[in-house]
Automatic annotation (TrEMBL):
Superkingdom in the source lineage: Eukaryota
GO cellular component: plasma membrane
Keywords: Cell membrane, G-protein coupled receptor, Membrane, Olfaction, Receptor, Sensory transduction, Transducer, Transmembrane, Transmembrane helix
Domain called G-protein coupled receptors family 1 profile: residue spans: 39-290
Record-given protein name: Olfactory receptor
GO molecular function terms listed in the Swiss-Prot or TrEMBL record: G protein-coupled receptor activity; olfactory receptor activity
PANTHER family documented for this protein: OLFACTORY RECEPTOR, OLFACTORY RECEPTOR 56B1-RELATED
Membrane topology field: Multi-pass membrane protein
Any one of the GO BP annotations: cellular response to lipid
Subcellular location: Cell membrane; Membrane
Protein family according to the UniProt entry: Belongs to the G-protein coupled receptor 1 family.
InterPro entries linked to this entry: GPCR_Rhodpsn, GPCR_Rhodpsn_7TM, Olfact_rcpt, OR51/52/56-like
């Protein structure tokens, strides 16, 4: 006979095998979170106060910045508590709440990138009708659809994970909670969780990747229809920041997936590093990429902080 019980807490993991170095991990983490906060808030403030940036492209950029902030804040509490204060215990309900928000904002970011690709396609293919196609109402509906789709896809996850018994180990692989990480600790059949998790990923991340691929095929086809080489390069240049943002999101995701699938022989430190890069790198680099690559954003940032003395 054996007794099955439900753990009330999970134990988070810092740097595997090097817990004494967790404190030194906290310093770059604080720098990353501070940079993420300042950079994305700057983008949001500049877009709000500068009327010249009240255009569809910058509204979508504001959505991306807000999503990056939300994704960072979803992981920050446990990441800093583990590495800075060595507080590794998290309640079951708090863990479920965190995984809900992390997975939701991952889906939102993927959807916003698709919306930005649509914006670039309309701007290049239908430049004369750009403002009439992407009105404030249409942009608002796109943003709401992206958010509702992601919430709807992730909403069953807390209920699916909460029904599972956890009677063996309660040690997670990361300093934050993920559905697939918690699911592997259950001492019950997790096929429903696995199947639903796969379907949710296909419906959001994989579908968005396919739409992005098709969008850029259409964009390049539209660019080739432009007679002037100079105008072609100018049109492509408006897409570079978005291409970098897509790569920042999907390359770490693909790398983490491949390492998880084929890199079981690798050090746990590699798995932790890739997981942290996937979660932390896009929010901190997206606003920097857009600030450097987009002259309008850069000059408006300078003007805002110099109180309009630089024209």
């Amino acid at each position: 006979n054996h007794t099955t019980w439900h753990h009330q807490t999970f134990t988070l993991t810092g740097i595997p095998g090097m817990s004494e170095k967790d404190f030194w991990m906290a310093l770059p983490l604080c720098l990353l979170y501070s940079t993420t906060f300042l950079a994305n808030v700057t983008i949001l403030v500049v877009i709000k106060v500068e009327r010249s940036l009240h255009k569809p492209m910058y509204y979508f950029l504001a959505m991306l910045a807000a999503t990056d902030l939300s994704l960072s804040f979803s992981s920050m509490p446990t990441m800093l508590s583990v590495h800075w204060f060595n507080w590794r215990s998290v309640t079951f309900d708090a863990c479920i709440t965190q995984m809900f928000f992390i997975h939701t904002f991952e889906g939102v970011e993927s959807g916003v990138l698709v919306a930005m690709a649509f914006d670039r396609f309309v701007a290049i293919r239908f430049p004369l009708h750009y403002a009439t196609i992407l009105t404030h109402g249409v942009i608002g509906k796109i943003g709401a659809a992206v958010l509702l789709r992601s919430v709807g896809a992730v909403l069953p996850v807390p209920f699916l994970i909460k029904r599972l018994p956890f009677c063996n180990s309660n040690v997670l692989s990361h300093a934050y909670c993920l559905h697939q990480d918690a699911m592997r600790l259950a001492c019950a059949d997790t096929r429903v969780n696995s199947i639903y998790g796969l379907l949710a990923v296909i419906f959001t991340i994989v579908l968005d990747a396919l739409i992005l691929l098709v969008s850029y095929i259409l964009i390049f086809h539209a660019v080739l229809g432009i007679a002037s080489w100079e105008e072609r390069l100018k049109a492509l240049n408006t897409c570079l920041s978005h291409i970098f943002a897509v790569l920042l999101f999907y390359v770490p995701l693909i790398g983490m997936t491949l390492i998880h699938r084929y890199g079981k022989h690798l050090s746990p430190v590699v798995h932790t590093l890739m997981a942290n890069i996937y979660l932390l790198l896009p929010p901190v680099l997206n606003p920097i990429v857009y600030s450097v690559r987009t002259k309008q954003i850069w000059w408006q940032i300078v003007r805002v902080f110099c109180r309009g003395r630089i024209d």
